[in-house]
Amino acid sequence: MPYRTIFPHLIAAALLLLGPPPAFAEQPALPPGAETAGHALPSDIMLRAAPLMQAGRRDEATFWFYAGQLRWRSRLNASPAQDQTGEPALFSSLFETLGPPVNGWAFGDIPKLQRTIDAVLLWDVRYPDPSLDPAVHERMRAGLTALRDQIGREAGMIRAERASQGLENR
Questions:
Q1: Which DSSP state fits 37?
Q2: Which domain holds residue 89?
Q3: Which of 6, 13, 67, 96 is surrounded by the most beta carbons within 10 Å?
Q4: pTM of the prediction?
């Protein structure tokens, strides 16, 4: 057989012997308690962040802060006419209280934050909340995905801004 004819067969045989290529990216790890938090109230999910931040478990705190946000935004956007002094006010209060320390930590390592957002999205699929409006929830998931992509595109600018403010970039 001429070389041109044998070469494709050799490549095919080599690929069969080598097996499938390794995965390029591992699935993100989920924090302890992820399997039981799927049906928890968004406030309970988000509130997990506070003691974790205090205990120095900042990456876990970031996960729960963003997981709670995702679920809570879905609930709030599904019922925009609800009493603004109830759940929307509680969300705003927790967001304003927990957000600065969590985001102050999380934005110090953009690739890790992006992986955490991927883990939140994976958790949300694995442990769905059937009480959420599917169309609204999908929009909120798309918004979180867009945030992940945006911070990746703007990572250099974010790092420069943090450095100018004396904040740590890890």
A1: -
A2: 29-164
A3: 67
A4: 0.81
